[in-house]
Amino acid sequence: MTNELPENVAIERVYLIEATYAPDAEELRRPVRAQHLARIATLRDEGIVLEAGGLLDMSASVLLVRADDEEAAREIARSDVYMKSGVWVELRVRPFGRACRPSELVTT
To answer: Cα–Cα distances in Å, from 88 out to 24, 34, 83, 102?
Structure first.
């Protein structure tokens, strides 16, 4: 087994955020959902959020984000209206190796 990547594949270090919903999240999110989704769209446009969505069982949201480190990724979620309004009650942040094309890598 080799550790070499195929020629046209790269691994980008990003962060997976799992944001646990409050038991009454469905009701709590109604007044702030449009604001939350608008922010997610803006962060996608900026290349910070790669993917975002909610588990259909209403247990958690999942986000893949580009950030300098785990704390910066956590701050992206902490500053969201869902966290501030109690829709999300807990955050779990983990590094994630995203398989992509080299041309998709963001360099700073």
So the answer is: 10, 15, 5, 34
Dihedral (C-alpha) 51, 55, 59, 64: value to the nearest 10 degrees?
-10
In three-state secondary structure terms, 68 is coil
Phi, psi dihedral angles at 80 (to 5 degrees)? -80, 145
- Could you write out the DSSP letters of every residue in 35-59? HHHHHHHHHHHTTSEEEEEE-TTSS
The CA distance from 8 to 100, in Å, is 9
Joined tokens for residue 103:
């041309």
Neighbours of 34 (CB within 10 A): 11
pTM: 0.89
Question: Which of the four pLDDT bands, split at 50, 70 and 90, describes residue 2?
Answer: low
Q: How far apart are the first and last CA of the chain?
A: 33
Q: Which residue has the tokens 């893949």?
A: 64
